[in-house]
């Protein structure tokens, strides 16, 4: 006898009418329980002279087990996402008051002394740092010479500069002979607050920027 697929639409409709049954409608254990009750009822009312087909019954049981397994996996993943978000918030709070490096070309200042950071994509025979005004006018050049691949920093004495220190920017020029070496300018800022955007941790920095945590290159 061909086994007619069990129709659970009536139960699903009833499940949406109350808060209690709504929760059961998304609970894998409750859904499996409803299926088994319907299956037992169908077996109890079958024609003994023409019983249900075993293959069809096995197929339906396999299908409900697959659906239940996927729902349980979704619940597990949701729990992991929520736990990860909580861990991110705790980690973010621990960064308040710390200095972090993010992409940017502003320098940090301490009593007229400027400091900047950068990453080199490869070793360079000659590295120079140009100190520039907002309009691109060259103020000074810091010569660092040959440097290895990786992160480095520089310092510049800006005590004689009469303009606004906060307006100055820097540019990294790294070369191997006539070939340019790619670099990433990094700026140092203190973390003053944390937040969340689209489930991702954000940091509010002392320079006014708000950056995603994954854009932090390092913690000092």
TrEMBL record:
It holds the Pfam family FlgD_ig. Keywords: Bacterial flagellum biogenesis, Cell projection, Cilium, Flagellum. The keyword Nucleus does not apply. Residues 87-214 form the FlgD Tudor-like domain. InterPro entries: FlgD, FlgD/Vpr_Ig-like, FLgD_Tudor. Signal peptide: none annotated. Residues 104-175 form the FlgD/Vpr Ig-like domain. The keyword Zinc does not apply. Belongs to the FlgD family. Required for flagellar hook formation. May act as a scaffolding protein. This is Basal-body rod modification protein FlgD. It comes from Comamonas faecalis. The gene is flgD.
